[in-house]
Specification:
By secondary structure, the chain is mainly α. Among the domains are: about 5-55, Winged helix-like DNA-binding domain superfamily/Winged helix DNA-binding domain (Arc Repressor Mutant, subunit A); about 65-105. It is about 45% helix and about 0% strand. It is built from 6 helices and no strands. The protein has helices spanning about 5-15, 25-30, 35-45, 65-75, 85-90, 95-105. Helix 2 (about 25-30) crosses helix 3 and helix 5 crosses helix 6 (about 95-105). The longest helix has 14 residues, at about 35-45. It starts with 5 loop residues before the first helix and ends in a 49-residue tail after the last helix.
Amino acid sequence: MATLSIDLRERILKAYDRGDVTRDQVARRFEVSLGMVKKLLQQRRHTGDIAPQHHRSGRKPKIEASHRRTMKALLVENPDLTLEEIRAAAGLECSVQAIHYALSGMGLTYKKRRSALPNRTARTSLGTAAGGKERRAVSNPGGSSSSTNRRQKRT
């Protein structure tokens, strides 16, 4: 459903304010729902404004900008934190998945499992790989394997 223009909202309220018609008659006259007329009257009574309130709709985020800054600082200080540890340290009351999506959106990484080894900044191998014979390009010199068809193709 499209948002009603401010002009139409004003005309609806002006027609009702005259006092000679009911809310239902106003709704039929301007081809809007009775609920819309009630909503406009209530909104004007509570806020004094009749502009659309779309910015107020939807679920409010639990992870705000301050939480994002806290999580980033925690991961800079200790990159081995798991999602559960980040949630506890930041004092968030949200799901682990919500923290995952927030960190992904920020381009940050985190430790995936408690069983994984801690991150290191030192080299993990001491030497280069051992040299060996050069391998041949074909692994099966006979040219057939269990997955190839041994019958000749018709031409």
